[in-house]
Design goal:
single chain; mainly alpha; f41 fragment of flagellin, N-terminal domain; two-stranded antiparallel sheet; two-stranded antiparallel ribbon
């Protein structure tokens, strides 16, 4: 029996400290919902989770880029719809002008509308989307993945060597106007098909990025998220150990007092 060194109290203090530390960790995990409260809890897991989190955030930015590209393509198609209607009407006017029962005044009236529609088509070729030309004939590069990879949209042009050049300075009374407009209408239809393909691919890419983010989030969850049932069980366990350890430490601190009985 000794007085200066209470081995039972020292051992009880150590065990109480361990139980208290584990209880505090269980509390922190329950409060945060994460198994990794500090890097020391799972250093490698934290590194992987951080990498996945960064990729998820990049993918969210890609979704914004893809949405803008879809809006860009839809705007192109909206203008091309109007061009199609204008060219259809121009072909009607050119056909009506071929009627020799019409007077020169009638044909002049047809031609006035024809020229206005031709200028309308030419003007659409100069439109832009947020400062980016819609019909420059240059394909727009779109980000497709979190590594910065890109693919280029099918190009669409209403300037240069395309529709506006095909219709040129034709008037409703120009010989061959109908045949020329048929070529222009076919060209616009081809452009709309290209734009439709662009929107379709953009939609598939959006779905692909969504699925990737879903799987990445599931991976991060497996690394970081706590199992509430398991963690609540551990919390209850360590709570009891802390309470019992505190009681036993109090008893251990009383043991040296037994030495006084030998002196009485």
């Amino acid at each position: 029996m000794v007085i200066n060194t209470n081995v039972s109290a020292i051992r009880g203090t150590r065990m109480l400290g361990e139980s208290t530390g584990r209880l505090n960790k269980a509390l922190a995990r329950m409060a945060s919902g994460s198994k990794i409260v500090s890097p020391s809890d799972d250093a490698a897991g934290l590194a992987v989770a951080n990498k996945f989190d960064a990729q998820i955030n990049r993918n969210k930015s890609i979704q914004n880029n893809l949405t803008s590209a879809v809006s860009y393509s839809q705007t192109q198609d909206g203008f091309l719809q109007k061009v199609t209607h204008a060219l259809d009407r121009m072909s009607e006017l050119a056909t009506l002008s071929m009627d020799n029962t019409k007077s020169a005044s009638d044909k002049a009236n047809y031609n006035t509308e024809f020229v206005d529609l031709r200028n309308y088509v030419s003007d659409i070729g100069l439109k832009d989307f947020n400062g980016v030309s819609l019909f420059s004939g240059t394909g727009l590069a779109v980000t497709k993945d979190s590594d910065g990879g890109t693919w280029t949209l099918n190009a669409s042009a209403l300037n240069g060597s395309d529709v506006t050049t095909v219709i040129g300075t034709f008037t409703a009374t120009t010989s061959g106007a109908v045949a020329t407009l048929k070529t222009a209408i076919e060209s616009v239809a081809t452009h709309r098909a290209k734009i439709g393909a662009n929107v379709q691919r953009l939609s598939f890419t959006q779905e692909q990025v969504n699925i990737l983010n879903e799987n990445l989030a599931a991976s991060v969850s497996r690394i970081k998220d706590i199992d509430v049932a398991e963690e609540s069980t551990q919390y209850a366990r360590y709570n009891i150990l802390v309470q019992s350890g505190t009681a036993m430490l109090a008893q251990a601190n009383l043991l040296p007092q037994n030495a006084l009985r030998l002196l009485q």
